[in-house]
Amino acid sequence: MKIRAHTLIAGVLVTLSMACAQVANAANADQPSPSSTVLPEVPDATKPTSRQKQGILIDADTANEVDDLHAIVRALIHPSFEVEGLNSAQWQISHYATPNTLEDSQRLNEVLLALLNKSSIPHPRGASHRLYDWGRDVAQHSAAAYHIIQEAHKTPEGEKLTVVMLGATTSLASALLIDPTISPKIKVYLLGTSHDFGRRIWRKRDFNCVMDVQAIEVVLNAKDLEIHIMPVNVAAAMVFDMEEAKQKLVQRNDLLNLLYRRWGDHIDGGRSRRVIWDLCVVSCLIYPQFGEEIRVTTPPEDTSREVYVFSSIDGLKIREEFYLALAEYYNLDLDGKRHEQAGT
Ligand SMILES: [Ca+2]
Question: Quick one: which of 140, 207, 209, 137 has its CA closest to 173?
């Protein structure tokens, strides 16, 4: 990842452990095993050691789209990550919202954790609605918000907790409102906003920002919070093909089947190609060379300072690496024919 100055100077996860027994049984048959598949080199700074991994906390509106599942799985199988939590997030004001978007996201998070035999990872619920409009306390006092606060304070001196926001930023904003002292202890990677790099214009009309218009302002205004933004107009360069997904994922194991099934189960199912938005954030966190970040001054309506913004990504490498990582984790040849016994 090349960081180059664009404007001025440098700027910068109450546990709810509930496993889904039905899928947990299936998970036992899907244990990972070693593979010789070659992956891109992981930068030295993020390589795992016997004593230290990169602590990350994921917050996702998993049930609203197809992409969150891919991003969450990619993070959960990465050996350099110590996933300190998987929060669920709401998307309740969407026109296609289900009766309880938060709980739908929560259920999917628990299924993913069970299928990966990782239900011991904390997976607290976020808020069921966006921040309050007015009052002395507009924060949503969710388990997820308090988990962020707890994990931030547990982070060793001189280190930061990486918080990955894949939906509305309600949980993080609430955490910052409840306990502003966590700000310098966190670096957040989020999908949201769009940015016209030529005219230096920000917009906050994308799905994630709109799902909690106040929360994104709280995040951008949080003093000392290190922010890395993946604008939606940049993430749009990373496209998955349904036929390729079918060829690589169907009838391999329960998790991979779920990833493909999501293409059709989603309310907006049937598309032959999809942007797997959230995967861009996780992949560029694992492999900084997959994206380029520049420093950009915050929108004029927010506290003036610089934040990191991805100006470009290598969508092809992100997609290829995702399938390679799955192949390595499960010791599968995803490019070969599907198993005969699978009846395909
Ligand atoms: Ca999302």
Answer: 140
Report CA(8)–ligand 1 centroid distance (Å).
31
CATH number of the structural domain 3-23+57-333: 3.90.245.10
Ligand 1 mean position to 182 CA, how many Å? Answer: 24
The mean per-residue pLDDT over the stretch 43-64 comes to 73
* C-alpha span between 179 and 185 (Å, rounded): 11
* Distance of CA 153 from the midpoint of ligand 1 (Å): 26
Extents of the domains making up the chain: 3-23+57-333
* 44 pLDDT higher than 70: no
- Region 293-308: what's the mean pLDDT? 96
